[in-house]
Amino acid sequence: MALYDQIIDNHGEFLESLRHRFLDEQRIAALQNFENLGFPTKKDEEYKYTSIKEITEKNYNFFPKESHNITREQLDQLHLGEENFDWIVFVNGKLHKELSKVSIENVEFLSFNYALNDEKHKEVFDKYFNTIASKDTAFTNLNLAYCKYGFFLKVPKNVVIEKPIHVFYISQNQEENTCYNTRNLLIVEEGAKVEIIESHHNFDSTYVLTNSVTEIFTYPNAKADWHKLQNDNNTSYLVDSTFARQEKDSLTTVNTFTFGGKLVRNNLDFIHNGSNINSFMNGITIIGKDQLVDHHTAVHHNFPNCESYQNYKGIYDGNAHGVFNGKVFVNKIAQKTNAYQQNNNVLLSEGATIDTKPQLEIFADDVKCSHGCTVGQLNEDALFYLRARGISKKEAQALLLYAFANDAMQNIDIEPLKEKISKLLAEKLKVDLEF
User: Fold this and answer.
1) Orientation angle between helical segments 380-387 and 393-406, nearest 10 degrees
2) CA dist., res. 154 & res. 77, Å (int)
3) How far apart are CA 260 and CA 284, in angstroms?
4) Does an H or E element contain 382, and which?
5) How many whole angstroms separate alpha carbon 301 and alpha carbon 304?
6) Is the pLDDT of residue 277 over 70?
7) Which of 254, 256, 303, 345 allows an S-S link to 314, with CB 3.0 to 4.6 Å?
8) pTM above 0.90, yes or no
9) What are the C-alpha distances in Å from 395 to residues 235, 389, 432?
10) What are φ and ψ of residue 428, in 5° steps?
Protein backbone atom coordinates (compact mmCIF):
# COMPACT_ATOMS: atom_id res chain seq x y z
CA MET A 1 0.00 0.00 0.00
CA ALA A 2 1.94 2.99 -1.33
CA LEU A 3 0.54 5.79 0.84
CA TYR A 4 0.77 3.79 4.07
CA ASP A 5 4.41 2.84 3.39
CA GLN A 6 5.24 6.42 2.46
CA ILE A 7 3.86 7.72 5.78
CA ILE A 8 5.54 5.08 7.93
CA ASP A 9 8.90 5.35 6.14
CA ASN A 10 9.01 9.16 6.36
CA HIS A 11 7.23 9.91 9.62
CA GLY A 12 10.36 11.27 11.32
CA GLU A 13 10.99 13.80 8.55
CA PHE A 14 7.30 14.74 8.44
CA LEU A 15 6.99 15.33 12.18
CA GLU A 16 10.22 17.32 12.36
CA SER A 17 8.80 19.86 9.89
CA LEU A 18 5.53 20.12 11.85
CA ARG A 19 6.76 21.10 15.26
CA HIS A 20 4.18 22.83 17.45
CA ARG A 21 5.02 22.82 21.13
CA PHE A 22 1.70 21.65 22.51
CA LEU A 23 0.97 19.17 19.73
CA ASP A 24 4.21 17.21 19.44
CA GLU A 25 3.19 14.38 21.79
CA GLN A 26 -0.29 14.14 20.29
CA ARG A 27 1.16 13.90 16.79
CA ILE A 28 3.49 11.06 17.78
CA ALA A 29 0.64 9.16 19.49
CA ALA A 30 -1.65 9.71 16.50
CA LEU A 31 0.95 8.38 14.09
CA GLN A 32 1.37 5.30 16.25
CA ASN A 33 -2.40 4.79 16.23
CA PHE A 34 -2.41 5.18 12.46
CA GLU A 35 0.36 2.63 12.09
CA ASN A 36 -1.59 0.15 14.24
CA LEU A 37 -4.89 0.72 12.44
CA GLY A 38 -3.77 0.94 8.82
CA PHE A 39 -6.11 2.19 6.14
CA PRO A 40 -9.59 0.60 6.14
CA THR A 41 -10.49 -2.00 3.53
CA LYS A 42 -13.82 -3.46 2.44
CA LYS A 43 -13.38 -6.05 5.19
CA ASP A 44 -14.07 -3.25 7.69
CA GLU A 45 -17.80 -2.87 8.35
CA GLU A 46 -17.69 0.94 8.01
CA TYR A 47 -16.09 0.62 4.55
CA LYS A 48 -17.98 -2.46 3.42
CA TYR A 49 -19.31 -0.71 0.31
CA THR A 50 -16.46 1.72 -0.32
CA SER A 51 -13.03 0.81 -1.59
CA ILE A 52 -10.37 3.48 -1.06
CA LYS A 53 -7.73 1.45 -2.86
CA GLU A 54 -7.32 3.99 -5.66
CA ILE A 55 -6.49 6.63 -3.03
CA THR A 56 -4.04 4.63 -0.97
CA GLU A 57 -2.09 3.18 -3.89
CA LYS A 58 -0.78 6.62 -4.84
CA ASN A 59 2.07 8.62 -3.30
CA TYR A 60 1.51 12.24 -2.25
CA ASN A 61 3.49 15.31 -1.37
CA PHE A 62 2.46 16.29 2.19
CA PHE A 63 4.05 19.74 1.98
CA PRO A 64 2.77 21.54 -1.12
CA LYS A 65 4.76 24.40 -2.57
CA GLU A 66 3.16 27.71 -1.73
CA SER A 67 3.69 29.54 -5.04
CA HIS A 68 0.57 30.06 -7.12
CA ASN A 69 -0.87 32.25 -9.87
CA ILE A 70 -4.56 32.30 -8.92
CA THR A 71 -6.26 35.30 -10.49
CA ARG A 72 -9.18 37.38 -9.27
CA GLU A 73 -11.17 36.21 -12.29
CA GLN A 74 -10.69 32.57 -11.29
CA LEU A 75 -11.79 33.35 -7.74
CA ASP A 76 -14.80 35.31 -8.97
CA GLN A 77 -16.01 32.22 -10.83
CA LEU A 78 -16.04 30.31 -7.54
CA HIS A 79 -18.11 32.88 -5.69
CA LEU A 80 -21.86 32.65 -5.18
CA GLY A 81 -22.72 36.23 -6.02
CA GLU A 82 -21.68 36.90 -2.45
CA GLU A 83 -20.64 40.56 -2.47
CA ASN A 84 -22.14 40.93 1.00
CA PHE A 85 -20.39 37.84 2.40
CA ASP A 86 -17.03 37.50 4.06
CA TRP A 87 -14.64 35.00 2.52
CA ILE A 88 -11.41 33.34 3.55
CA VAL A 89 -9.07 31.99 0.87
CA PHE A 90 -6.47 29.31 1.47
CA VAL A 91 -4.19 28.56 -1.49
CA ASN A 92 -1.93 25.52 -1.22
CA GLY A 93 -2.66 25.44 2.49
CA LYS A 94 -1.69 29.04 3.24
CA LEU A 95 -4.17 31.76 4.24
CA HIS A 96 -3.99 34.65 1.76
CA LYS A 97 -5.33 37.85 3.27
CA GLU A 98 -4.99 39.74 0.00
CA LEU A 99 -7.47 37.34 -1.63
CA SER A 100 -9.78 37.26 1.38
CA LYS A 101 -12.41 39.64 2.65
CA VAL A 102 -12.79 39.56 6.43
CA SER A 103 -14.92 42.17 8.14
CA ILE A 104 -16.04 40.14 11.15
CA GLU A 105 -15.41 41.83 14.48
CA ASN A 106 -15.52 40.83 18.15
CA VAL A 107 -14.45 37.25 17.34
CA GLU A 108 -11.25 35.25 17.53
CA PHE A 109 -10.20 34.19 14.05
CA LEU A 110 -6.82 32.71 13.17
CA SER A 111 -5.36 30.41 10.57
CA PHE A 112 -4.87 27.01 12.17
CA ASN A 113 -1.10 27.06 11.65
CA TYR A 114 -0.81 30.41 13.42
CA ALA A 115 -3.12 29.35 16.26
CA LEU A 116 -0.98 26.26 16.91
CA ASN A 117 2.03 28.52 17.49
CA ASP A 118 0.24 31.12 19.59
CA GLU A 119 0.82 30.36 23.27
CA LYS A 120 -2.17 32.42 24.42
CA HIS A 121 -4.50 29.97 22.65
CA LYS A 122 -3.03 26.91 24.35
CA GLU A 123 -5.77 26.87 27.01
CA VAL A 124 -8.50 26.98 24.35
CA PHE A 125 -6.87 24.19 22.38
CA ASP A 126 -6.43 22.06 25.49
CA LYS A 127 -10.15 22.43 26.21
CA TYR A 128 -11.51 21.82 22.71
CA PHE A 129 -9.00 20.50 20.21
CA ASN A 130 -9.40 16.81 19.36
CA THR A 131 -11.86 16.24 22.21
CA ILE A 132 -14.79 15.07 20.06
CA ALA A 133 -13.00 13.88 16.92
CA SER A 134 -12.80 10.10 16.68
CA LYS A 135 -9.60 8.57 18.03
CA ASP A 136 -10.04 5.20 16.34
CA THR A 137 -10.05 5.85 12.59
CA ALA A 138 -7.03 5.95 10.30
CA PHE A 139 -7.97 9.22 8.63
CA THR A 140 -8.60 11.20 11.84
CA ASN A 141 -5.29 9.97 13.27
CA LEU A 142 -3.50 10.84 10.04
CA ASN A 143 -5.04 14.30 10.19
CA LEU A 144 -3.95 14.82 13.81
CA ALA A 145 -0.41 13.74 12.96
CA TYR A 146 -0.04 16.18 10.07
CA CYS A 147 -2.69 18.90 10.47
CA LYS A 148 -1.43 22.35 9.63
CA TYR A 149 -3.96 23.97 7.31
CA GLY A 150 -7.38 25.36 8.16
CA PHE A 151 -8.89 27.87 10.55
CA PHE A 152 -9.90 28.46 14.17
CA LEU A 153 -12.97 30.61 14.89
CA LYS A 154 -14.45 31.44 18.29
CA VAL A 155 -17.68 33.44 18.37
CA PRO A 156 -18.15 34.99 21.84
CA LYS A 157 -21.34 35.00 23.86
CA ASN A 158 -24.35 36.70 22.18
CA VAL A 159 -22.36 37.78 19.12
CA VAL A 160 -24.37 37.33 15.93
CA ILE A 161 -22.30 37.25 12.75
CA GLU A 162 -24.71 38.62 10.18
CA LYS A 163 -22.64 37.82 7.09
CA PRO A 164 -22.05 34.21 6.01
CA ILE A 165 -18.37 33.26 5.81
CA HIS A 166 -17.25 31.30 2.74
CA VAL A 167 -14.01 29.35 3.23
CA PHE A 168 -12.19 28.38 0.03
CA TYR A 169 -9.50 25.69 0.00
CA ILE A 170 -7.64 25.91 -3.31
CA SER A 171 -4.84 23.75 -4.68
CA GLN A 172 -2.91 25.02 -7.68
CA ASN A 173 0.52 24.83 -9.29
CA GLN A 174 1.37 21.44 -7.77
CA GLU A 175 3.52 19.18 -9.92
CA GLU A 176 3.01 16.11 -7.73
CA ASN A 177 -0.01 14.42 -6.19
CA THR A 178 -0.70 16.40 -3.02
CA CYS A 179 -2.23 15.60 0.36
CA TYR A 180 -3.80 18.30 2.55
CA ASN A 181 -4.68 17.48 6.16
CA THR A 182 -7.10 20.31 6.80
CA ARG A 183 -8.27 21.07 10.34
CA ASN A 184 -11.10 23.38 11.40
CA LEU A 185 -12.25 24.33 14.89
CA LEU A 186 -15.47 26.31 15.42
CA ILE A 187 -16.65 27.40 18.89
CA VAL A 188 -20.03 29.17 19.09
CA GLU A 189 -20.64 30.41 22.61
CA GLU A 190 -24.00 30.94 24.32
CA GLY A 191 -26.50 32.96 22.29
CA ALA A 192 -24.11 33.39 19.34
CA LYS A 193 -24.81 32.68 15.67
CA VAL A 194 -22.65 31.96 12.61
CA GLU A 195 -22.97 30.44 9.13
CA ILE A 196 -20.02 28.85 7.31
CA ILE A 197 -19.76 27.71 3.70
CA GLU A 198 -16.84 25.41 2.84
CA SER A 199 -15.62 24.44 -0.62
CA HIS A 200 -12.50 22.73 -2.04
CA HIS A 201 -11.08 23.32 -5.52
CA ASN A 202 -8.24 21.58 -7.37
CA PHE A 203 -6.95 23.58 -10.36
CA ASP A 204 -4.35 21.00 -11.42
CA SER A 205 -4.46 17.73 -13.33
CA THR A 206 -2.44 16.04 -10.58
CA TYR A 207 -4.38 14.23 -7.86
CA VAL A 208 -5.30 15.94 -4.62
CA LEU A 209 -6.28 14.09 -1.46
CA THR A 210 -7.94 16.31 1.15
CA ASN A 211 -8.26 14.69 4.55
CA SER A 212 -10.33 17.16 6.54
CA VAL A 213 -11.41 17.11 10.20
CA THR A 214 -13.81 19.70 11.61
CA GLU A 215 -14.92 20.08 15.24
CA ILE A 216 -17.98 22.23 16.00
CA PHE A 217 -19.03 23.24 19.53
CA THR A 218 -22.45 24.87 19.88
CA TYR A 219 -23.37 26.27 23.29
CA PRO A 220 -26.85 26.97 24.83
CA ASN A 221 -29.20 29.04 22.65
CA ALA A 222 -26.51 29.27 19.95
CA LYS A 223 -26.91 28.49 16.26
CA ALA A 224 -24.21 27.11 13.95
CA ASP A 225 -24.79 26.28 10.28
CA TRP A 226 -22.09 24.62 8.16
CA HIS A 227 -22.73 24.18 4.44
CA LYS A 228 -20.40 21.92 2.44
CA LEU A 229 -20.33 22.59 -1.29
CA GLN A 230 -18.47 19.71 -2.94
CA ASN A 231 -18.04 20.30 -6.65
CA ASP A 232 -14.38 19.54 -7.38
CA ASN A 233 -12.81 18.00 -10.47
CA ASN A 234 -12.26 14.33 -11.28
CA THR A 235 -8.68 14.23 -9.92
CA SER A 236 -9.82 15.07 -6.40
CA TYR A 237 -10.39 12.84 -3.40
CA LEU A 238 -12.06 14.12 -0.24
CA VAL A 239 -12.37 12.40 3.12
CA ASP A 240 -14.31 14.74 5.38
CA SER A 241 -14.90 13.99 9.07
CA THR A 242 -17.10 16.47 10.93
CA PHE A 243 -17.99 16.25 14.61
CA ALA A 244 -20.56 18.51 16.27
CA ARG A 245 -21.24 18.69 20.01
CA GLN A 246 -24.31 20.60 21.10
CA GLU A 247 -25.34 21.94 24.49
CA LYS A 248 -28.95 22.46 25.62
CA ASP A 249 -31.32 24.62 23.55
CA SER A 250 -28.88 24.84 20.63
CA LEU A 251 -29.37 24.35 16.90
CA THR A 252 -26.73 23.01 14.51
CA THR A 253 -27.11 22.28 10.80
CA VAL A 254 -24.70 20.55 8.43
CA ASN A 255 -25.76 20.55 4.78
CA THR A 256 -23.72 18.56 2.26
CA PHE A 257 -24.15 19.19 -1.47
CA THR A 258 -22.01 16.86 -3.59
CA PHE A 259 -21.75 17.31 -7.36
CA GLY A 260 -18.07 16.58 -8.08
CA GLY A 261 -14.94 14.79 -6.99
CA LYS A 262 -13.67 11.35 -7.95
CA LEU A 263 -14.23 9.81 -4.52
CA VAL A 264 -15.90 11.59 -1.61
CA ARG A 265 -16.40 10.17 1.86
CA ASN A 266 -18.39 12.26 4.36
CA ASN A 267 -18.33 11.19 8.01
CA LEU A 268 -20.71 13.19 10.19
CA ASP A 269 -21.20 12.76 13.96
CA PHE A 270 -23.62 14.75 16.13
CA ILE A 271 -23.28 14.47 19.90
CA HIS A 272 -26.10 15.76 22.13
CA ASN A 273 -24.93 17.10 25.46
CA GLY A 274 -28.15 18.63 26.81
CA SER A 275 -31.91 18.79 26.37
CA ASN A 276 -34.04 20.65 23.80
CA ILE A 277 -31.41 20.32 21.07
CA ASN A 278 -32.19 20.47 17.35
CA SER A 279 -29.87 18.89 14.75
CA PHE A 280 -30.36 19.07 10.99
CA MET A 281 -28.50 17.12 8.31
CA ASN A 282 -29.43 17.48 4.65
CA GLY A 283 -27.66 16.22 1.58
CA ILE A 284 -27.98 16.28 -2.19
CA THR A 285 -25.74 14.07 -4.33
CA ILE A 286 -25.76 14.15 -8.13
CA ILE A 287 -22.92 12.22 -9.76
CA GLY A 288 -22.18 10.18 -12.88
CA LYS A 289 -19.38 8.43 -14.76
CA ASP A 290 -17.38 6.38 -12.22
CA GLN A 291 -17.68 8.74 -9.26
CA LEU A 292 -18.28 7.46 -5.73
CA VAL A 293 -19.89 9.38 -2.85
CA ASP A 294 -20.30 7.82 0.60
CA HIS A 295 -22.29 9.50 3.40
CA HIS A 296 -21.89 8.08 6.91
CA THR A 297 -23.91 9.88 9.59
CA ALA A 298 -24.46 9.28 13.30
CA VAL A 299 -26.58 11.13 15.86
CA HIS A 300 -26.10 10.40 19.55
CA HIS A 301 -29.25 11.30 21.49
CA ASN A 302 -28.01 11.36 25.08
CA PHE A 303 -30.61 13.66 26.70
CA PRO A 304 -34.43 13.98 26.62
CA ASN A 305 -36.58 16.27 24.47
CA CYS A 306 -34.22 16.54 21.51
CA GLU A 307 -34.85 16.36 17.77
CA SER A 308 -32.73 15.31 14.80
CA TYR A 309 -33.66 15.44 11.14
CA GLN A 310 -31.79 13.77 8.28
CA ASN A 311 -32.86 14.08 4.65
CA TYR A 312 -30.47 12.83 1.94
CA LYS A 313 -31.31 12.71 -1.75
CA GLY A 314 -29.19 10.96 -4.39
CA ILE A 315 -29.27 10.94 -8.20
CA TYR A 316 -26.84 8.55 -9.88
CA ASP A 317 -25.99 8.15 -13.56
CA GLY A 318 -23.36 6.28 -15.61
CA ASN A 319 -21.39 3.89 -13.40
CA ALA A 320 -21.65 6.08 -10.32
CA HIS A 321 -21.84 4.47 -6.89
CA GLY A 322 -23.57 5.95 -3.88
CA VAL A 323 -23.46 4.85 -0.25
CA PHE A 324 -25.59 6.05 2.66
CA ASN A 325 -25.23 4.68 6.18
CA GLY A 326 -27.18 6.68 8.73
CA LYS A 327 -27.24 5.78 12.42
CA VAL A 328 -29.38 7.14 15.22
CA PHE A 329 -28.54 6.15 18.80
CA VAL A 330 -31.10 6.90 21.52
CA ASN A 331 -29.85 6.58 25.09
CA LYS A 332 -32.22 5.11 27.69
CA ILE A 333 -32.56 8.49 29.41
CA ALA A 334 -33.29 10.29 26.11
CA GLN A 335 -37.09 10.16 26.46
CA LYS A 336 -39.27 12.31 24.16
CA THR A 337 -36.68 12.03 21.40
CA ASN A 338 -37.94 12.83 17.91
CA ALA A 339 -35.59 11.47 15.24
CA TYR A 340 -36.30 11.42 11.51
CA GLN A 341 -34.05 9.86 8.90
CA GLN A 342 -34.76 9.47 5.19
CA ASN A 343 -32.61 8.54 2.19
CA ASN A 344 -34.23 8.60 -1.27
CA ASN A 345 -32.36 7.72 -4.45
CA VAL A 346 -32.94 7.69 -8.19
CA LEU A 347 -30.85 5.53 -10.54
CA LEU A 348 -30.72 6.86 -14.09
CA SER A 349 -28.71 4.05 -15.70
CA GLU A 350 -28.18 0.32 -15.38
CA GLY A 351 -24.58 0.84 -14.31
CA ALA A 352 -25.41 3.12 -11.36
CA THR A 353 -25.65 1.56 -7.88
CA ILE A 354 -26.59 2.63 -4.36
CA ASP A 355 -26.01 0.86 -1.04
CA THR A 356 -28.21 2.37 1.65
CA LYS A 357 -28.44 1.32 5.28
CA PRO A 358 -30.46 3.45 7.71
CA GLN A 359 -30.13 2.27 11.32
CA LEU A 360 -31.84 2.94 14.64
CA GLU A 361 -30.63 1.81 18.06
CA ILE A 362 -33.24 2.84 20.62
CA PHE A 363 -33.00 2.17 24.35
CA ALA A 364 -35.75 4.60 25.45
CA ASP A 365 -39.46 3.77 25.32
CA ASP A 366 -41.14 7.16 24.83
CA VAL A 367 -39.80 8.31 21.46
CA LYS A 368 -40.82 9.13 17.91
CA CYS A 369 -38.21 7.69 15.57
CA SER A 370 -38.55 6.84 11.92
CA HIS A 371 -36.21 5.89 9.14
CA GLY A 372 -36.53 4.79 5.57
CA CYS A 373 -34.94 4.61 2.18
CA THR A 374 -36.11 4.28 -1.40
CA VAL A 375 -34.25 3.30 -4.55
CA GLY A 376 -35.94 3.50 -7.91
CA GLN A 377 -36.51 5.32 -11.16
CA LEU A 378 -38.67 8.27 -12.12
CA ASN A 379 -42.44 8.02 -11.74
CA GLU A 380 -43.80 7.07 -15.14
CA ASP A 381 -47.23 8.63 -14.50
CA ALA A 382 -45.67 11.99 -13.62
CA LEU A 383 -43.44 11.75 -16.67
CA PHE A 384 -46.44 11.02 -18.90
CA TYR A 385 -48.35 13.95 -17.37
CA LEU A 386 -45.59 16.41 -18.26
CA ARG A 387 -45.04 15.00 -21.76
CA ALA A 388 -48.78 15.21 -22.46
CA ARG A 389 -48.46 18.96 -21.96
CA GLY A 390 -45.86 19.37 -24.68
CA ILE A 391 -42.69 19.04 -22.57
CA SER A 392 -39.94 16.92 -24.12
CA LYS A 393 -38.95 13.69 -22.39
CA LYS A 394 -35.50 15.03 -21.49
CA GLU A 395 -36.87 18.24 -19.97
CA ALA A 396 -39.64 16.36 -18.16
CA GLN A 397 -37.08 14.01 -16.56
CA ALA A 398 -34.93 16.96 -15.51
CA LEU A 399 -37.87 18.84 -13.98
CA LEU A 400 -38.94 15.79 -11.98
CA LEU A 401 -35.39 15.23 -10.74
CA TYR A 402 -35.07 18.89 -9.78
CA ALA A 403 -38.29 18.68 -7.76
CA PHE A 404 -37.08 15.41 -6.20
CA ALA A 405 -33.88 17.00 -4.90
CA ASN A 406 -35.25 20.42 -4.09
CA ASP A 407 -36.77 19.73 -0.66
CA ALA A 408 -33.32 18.97 0.77
CA MET A 409 -32.53 22.69 0.29
CA GLN A 410 -35.48 24.10 2.19
CA ASN A 411 -33.62 25.00 5.39
CA ILE A 412 -30.91 27.03 3.60
CA ASP A 413 -31.52 30.63 4.63
CA ILE A 414 -28.59 32.04 2.61
CA GLU A 415 -30.31 33.10 -0.59
CA PRO A 416 -27.16 33.26 -2.82
CA LEU A 417 -26.19 29.75 -1.67
CA LYS A 418 -29.66 28.40 -2.39
CA GLU A 419 -29.52 29.99 -5.83
CA LYS A 420 -26.05 28.52 -6.48
CA ILE A 421 -27.23 25.02 -5.52
CA SER A 422 -30.28 25.44 -7.74
CA LYS A 423 -28.08 26.45 -10.67
CA LEU A 424 -25.73 23.52 -10.10
CA LEU A 425 -28.74 21.22 -10.01
CA ALA A 426 -29.98 22.68 -13.27
CA GLU A 427 -26.55 22.35 -14.89
CA LYS A 428 -26.17 18.75 -13.78
CA LEU A 429 -29.68 17.89 -14.94
CA LYS A 430 -29.29 19.93 -18.15
CA VAL A 431 -32.52 21.87 -17.74
CA ASP A 432 -33.31 25.57 -18.19
CA LEU A 433 -34.89 27.00 -15.06
CA GLU A 434 -35.89 30.53 -14.11
CA PHE A 435 -34.46 31.75 -10.79
Assistant:
1) 130
2) 29
3) 12
4) helix 380-387
5) 8
6) yes
7) 345
8) yes
9) 30, 12, 8
10) -65, -35
